[in-house]
Design brief:
335 residues, Dna Ligase, domain 1, five-stranded mixed beta sheet
Length: 335
């Protein structure tokens, strides 16, 4: 039975239909402009508009609706990795509410919480702490989001954060070097640190590709669509357009790199004997020409671009793979 993975971004809506699993078989890939400019509805007016938008997307592209998998933007969730003495599943279930109160800045009566053990030490190592992933979100956010799909006659089978999907698409294991993942979307950059195959932390920063586009509009006096085109075509190439596009983009790019440096310093403060070895970029804005090379130049680290379709077969698109990383991670999850 085909599944549908949906990533509703502020700039585009990405959808992949296909047979789910660790090696997905792709049937259809769709990317459409999001005229609403929001990734989740904040009121009933936006709910109605998003319903109409998604209905058209699903109908026009003959997308399946039986196994629909959704991503939640990091900006509406609180993700924490906490360390605890090793507990059984039953003991952890009893303790998780109190732990959430200590670590998630949402009142308990408004909180919807999910948790997952990311590391449990062997029973013989009683002095080693277990690590638990906590994900908290306001119930009102979930209700508003699900209202959209209820009106579409769809009951989603999966709802998870963008970074969890992105990490799954990267297919990390314990042999991989310490990696900072940076998912650069239109309005945010979400980062996750993977150490010995385990998630250390998640950070979201409210700067993305649209900030770079606006800087072009203001610096060179371009219309929004033209600025977006120039950004994607010329990027940081100083040989193009007399270097004016690069000059306009660099302040925003340096902000993004500064946030990466903060994440790296935080990791080092927690693990003084270890260091970040590489950066993995994903998201549509990660494809900015020259971005990977510039980050390497500034940080002295290997920089890779996400290739989420490596395990897949079927109707694989020719371009824009990094922008579809979240959808691929959703499709690869086994339920």
């Amino acid at each position: 039975m085909p599944a549908l993975a949906l990533d509703i971004g502020t700039y585009t809506i990405k959808a992949i239909a296909g047979k789910p699993g660790p090696k997905p078989q792709i049937e259809r890939v769709v990317e459409a402009f999001n005229p609403l400019g929001v990734s989740f509805p904040s009121d009933d007016v936006q709910v109605d508009k998003m319903v109409q938008l998604l209905q058209g997307l699903i109908t026009d592209n003959r997308l399946p609706t039986t196994d629909v998998r959704l991503s939640l933007p990091e900006g509406v969730v609180s993700t924490k990795i906490i360390s605890l003495p090793s507990l059984s599943d039953a003991e952890l279930a009893s303790a998780i509410g109190w732990q959430a109160e200590q670590h998630i800045p949402i009142p308990p009566e408004e909180l919807s919480i999910e948790y997952q053990v990311v590391f449990r030490p062997p029973k013989r190592d009683k002095n080693i702490l277990m690590k638990v992933l906590l994900i908290g979100v306001r119930k009102s956010v979930i209700e508003q989001y699900l209202k959209v799909f209820s009106q579409l006659g769809i009951e989603p089978t999966l709802l998870e954060t963008q970074m969890l999907s992105t990490i799954r698409a990267a297919q990390f294991d314990v042999t991989d070097p310490t990696t900072l993942m940076a998912h650069v979307g239109a309005s945010t950059m979400d980062m996750a640190l993977l150490f010995q195959g385990q998630l250390e932390f998640v950070i979201s920063h409210v700067t993305g590709g649209q900030v770079l586009t606006r800087s072009l509009e203001q610096s060179i006096g371009l219309e929004p669509t033209q600025a977006e085109s120039y950004k994607r075509t010329y990027g940081l190439d100083e040989r193009q357009f007399q270097g004016k596009v690069r000059e306009a983009l660099l302040p925003g790019v340096k902000i993004l790199i500064g946030e990466m440096q903060k994440a790296i310093r935080f990791f080092t403060s927690q693990h003084p004997n270890d260091s970040v070895k590489r950066i993995l970029l994903s998201g549509g804005s990660s494809q900015l020409p020259g971005l990977a090379q510039y980050i390497t130049q500034e940080l002295g680290l290997e920089v890779l671009i996400s290739a989420p379709f490596v395990p897949a077969t079927g109707q694989i698109p020719q371009v824009n793979h990094p922008a579809l990383t979240v959808c691929m991670g959703l499709l690869e999850r086994e339920l």
